[in-house]
Here is the input.
Amino acid sequence: MSKVRIAIVGAGNMARVRGRAFLDTGRAEICGVAARRTETAERCARELGCGVFGDDFRKLVQTRPDAVLIEVPHRVQDEATMWALDAGFDLLIGGCLASSRENGRRIVEEADRSGRIVEAGFQRRYDPAWEEIRRLVTGGELGPPVMAVTMALWNADPDAWYYEHELLLSECGSLDSGQADHRFRIGQPEAEYGARSRNGRNLRGPDRIRKRCFRFGHCQLYRP
Here is the structure.
């Protein structure tokens, strides 16, 4: 049986982790990597045994992939996603589907039109702990939610793109205030408060946060 050929847009930690996972199945091969940072792309390509195609992901078409894995900042992700669908490739998207609802709808419509498979990274919804929290809350065993606190306990490199504010003004992301994991588990809050990380030199706005506190309608502590 011939192996599935996968090209990768992006060369960070998740690109390497998922790339190795595909190789470990024995059913896939990585046929090329394209990324903005040459040194990172070359290191990723060496690990995965493939070629580097610079910072122009469109050149990956030369590798004749069956599918494209996208592991880049979310605003850049949208452009790469639409290119891959237009080029006729199945898609594996490392993060959320898109940076906005509008772009998400465009992706869904294009996937339906072209008959392409699109996978997005919402795997945590199938985590047993998350499912149990959701069951306890929606089943009423814990009572109405009052307040929730969530933290990103992840020591990201201050020089990595996660802190490049101009790339990350989006509605989604690992550290963004728009991350909606709480909605799946405990519902929609009335208000949100956050504490921003100060590790990165490029932080210039309020959306990059490490700790969030959500207030729900049943809470009287914050009522005026």
Notes: The chain is about 30% helix and 20% strand. Residues 153 and 210 are 8 Å apart (CA to CA).
